[in-house]
């Protein structure tokens, strides 16, 4: 595309691209935007190095003038869009990229990869957080997604309200609180469960979490309290019928005097399994596969569409694909969430050139990148924490119906004005 | 775990870990191993740098002797396992890692991330390849998975039999054949569809593939042949009822004399949609979301378990988790695929120390890494191509039942001897 546009001379036309989702996955009621801060850093760093250029040249993938153009590439345009952590709905203009066709079209794959994956994780994670009803959830799914996606998913889950991750790299690069886990291999390595428990308590003190289901849960709970004392921090159960198991472990811990020892459970949980444990004496959850794979919907389904470009007279022309079910709406748009009494009533999308409608509500579009330079508020550890805090505020605006786990319509309608 | 094991002094015990899947996702009939070549390169490079070590130190995540140990870390053990591209079944010991507990346990997350993601993609892709019945499929899903997973999935789909990818980085780093695509934005950028088609034909000649569903398919097909002539390479349809659409476009192309112009379709295809188009005059497919997300199963579900370790007397002790549904089978195992008349009859798994059973069949375990050094046969472009070729041979051994898309049992039983 880039090569042919350079050939036709249209590559320098000023353009507006927009990333949005046509629908929410699986009839969910809202989505959570994530990936924005990570994406802005990747866009700032996006270059074509000698190895990439040689590959394109030697394989005759593009013409030599395109190689020259790519050698000097960096994105110099403007990006606006939703704050990371905000809710989104069908049609929400989550990311708006302004630049020449050439520089903006090159970002399509990167922007969608990041937003689709991270938003899929955050949207699933937010449902788990509300299902957990204020009990903490740790992200433990690194081994069930690509090795780099693992870091992104720890970050996205944290933005959505998870309390910690087992992915240390997410702690280092994004400031996500980290926690260790002991696997069954640690118990099996030692000559007895008692030796394994003692090794862990020696290393981390009695406040550690002991894994009690390697051999026999009841014996292991007895042993755990014997080794660590009644100050034992927590026991973890990773198998079995959790509702039954948890109640009996709670009773056993209490009878042993370990009334403050917490119970954490981690066996293939998703939002539905978490909700089903609401009445059980669970203190915290660990979630793996289901959160890093978007609980059945591992890609948010956002698309990146050209919505406007300059014509030869330098005037903006709105454009949209017209065929069949995938028709889109052209024009550089803006959005607000209309509110009544602090609660969202609609996602109101309008042409930016028409100006803000006269309605009560919150403007959703913020500046993300100006002339190729990212707004520092959204980057790094601070940006990640800001997104987490914004998610809490933004979801507090949604009607309670948003948090039902069953399938349904988006909790507010999208209105185009 | 590492920190506590260093504390207990058990970290240097020689150990054997094994990666395997307890079951195949969604009652599929076989899985395809992928990621091995990529993983071996990542293991060779796996180090803890100053930034990582400072993070661990400053946040008091591990003790200082563990920091010292990590500073010198590189994997020095042996890895054996299934050839990349081979079929696997429940219990198949896909990867066997031998080393000290400390050095082998550190690989758990990396090994599972790579194998679970890449094998999920390859296992889904292989079903699409058999559904396509020898018609080529291009991988176009980069935008629907994490930005690094996108490269891995292009590679895994190629190993499983896809013919090409739109991900240029997969071409550069793994030798996967690449192809360009024109999106609707390219058509919309130009002042008319005619101008866009002309720009593309000017850049790439008439053998290019023109996207014909931006406005009106019938008019676009007429225009495409008018602009490119009857030597037009292909038209692409990305929306609508494909079976109906394809038949009418074929008739239209033929009536225009473009009898050699191919038709490629790309609208949210998975293996079932591909199979449903078998009777339609489709020449090739492009698949995005469904292949990079494992067609509903984005993680292969492999686990990494300690199966044996030395005791203090230097003897091997088999170990296994005993609790409930997640019980595992201990011991350093090997595997063969028993064959009758060239067709697989079972996945036969045995204790390596017992020696190979006296049965007709193919040994499945090969050397992958020796003393921390990867076998060059499995690496880079050559290793990727070798995996693709091996996949073809390995799947040719499976009974025809393997290629049914409906749910069922694994096509051969796993037998432990």
UniProtKB/TrEMBL annotation, chains A, B:
Sequence ranges assigned to domain Nicotinate phosphoribosyltransferase N-terminal in this UniProt record: 1-116
Reaction(s) catalysed (UniProt annotation): 5-phospho-alpha-D-ribose 1-diphosphate + nicotinate + ATP + H2O = nicotinate beta-D-ribonucleotide + ADP + phosphate + diphosphate
EC number, as in UniProt: 6.3.4.21
PTMs per UniProt: Transiently phosphorylated on a His residue during the reaction cycle. Phosphorylation strongly increases the affinity for substrates and increases the rate of nicotinate D-ribonucleotide production. Dephosphorylation regenerates the low-affinity form of the enzyme, leading to product release.
Keyword tRNA-binding: no
Keyword entries, A-Z: Glycosyltransferase, Ligase, Phosphoprotein, Pyridine nucleotide biosynthesis, Transferase
Functional description taken from the UniProt entry: Catalyzes the first step in the biosynthesis of NAD from nicotinic acid, the ATP-dependent synthesis of beta-nicotinate D-ribonucleotide from nicotinate and 5-phospho-D-ribose 1-phosphate.
Name this polypeptide is given: Nicotinate phosphoribosyltransferase
The organism of origin for this protein: Rhodoglobus aureus
């Amino acid at each position: 595309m880039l090569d042919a546009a350079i050939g036709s001379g249209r590559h320098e036309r000023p353009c507006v691209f927009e990333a949005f989702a046509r629908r929410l996955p699986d009839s969910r009621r809202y989505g959570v935007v994530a990936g924005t801060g990570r994406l802005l850093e990747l866009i700032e760093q996006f270059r074509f190095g000698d190895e990439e250029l040689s590959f394109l040249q030697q394989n005759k993938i593009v013409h030599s003038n395109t190689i020259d153009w790519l050698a000097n590439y960096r994105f110099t345009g403007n990006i606006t869009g939703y704050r990371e952590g905000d809710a989104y709905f069908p049609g929400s203009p989550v990311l708006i990229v302004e630049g020449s066709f050439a520089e903006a079209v090159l970002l399509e794959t990167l922007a969608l990869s990041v937003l689709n994956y991270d938003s899929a994780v955050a949207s699933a994670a937010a449902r788990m957080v509300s299902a957990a009803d204020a009990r903490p959830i740790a992200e433990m799914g690194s081994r069930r997604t690509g090795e780099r996606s693992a870091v992104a998913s720890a970050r996205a889950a944290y933005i959505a309200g998870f309390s910690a991750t087992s992915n240390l790299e997410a702690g280092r690069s994004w400031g996500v609180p980290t926690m260790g886990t002991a696997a069954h291999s640690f118990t099996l390595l030692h000559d007895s469960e008692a030796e394994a428990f003692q090794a862990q308590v020696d290393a981390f003190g009695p406040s550690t979490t002991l894994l009690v289901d390697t051999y026999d849960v009841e014996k292991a709970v007895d042993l755990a309290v014997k080794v660590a004392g009644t100050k034992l921090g927590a026991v973890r159960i990773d198998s079995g019928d959790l509702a039954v198991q948890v109640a009996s472990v709670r009773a056993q811990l209490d009878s042993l005097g370990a009334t403050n020892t917490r119970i954490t459970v981690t066996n293939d949980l998703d939002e539905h399994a978490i909700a089903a444990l609401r009445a059980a004496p669970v203190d915290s959850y660990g979630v793996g596969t289901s959160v890093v794979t978007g609980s059945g919907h591992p890609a948010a389904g956002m698309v990146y569409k050209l919505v406007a470009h300059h014509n030869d007279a330098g005037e903006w022309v709105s454009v949209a694909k017209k065929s069949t079910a995938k028709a889109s709406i052209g024009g550089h748009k803006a959005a607000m969430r209309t509110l009544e009494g602090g609660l969202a009533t609609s996602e109101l999308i309008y042409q930016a050139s028409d100006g803000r409608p006269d309605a009560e509500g919150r403007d959703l579009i913020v500046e993300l990148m100006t002339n190729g330079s990212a707004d520092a508020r959204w980057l790094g550890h601070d940006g990640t924490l800001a997104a987490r805090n914004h998610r809490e505020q933004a979801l507090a605006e949604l009607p309670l119906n948003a948090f039902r786990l069953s399938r349904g319509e988006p909790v507010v309608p999208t209105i185009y004005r």
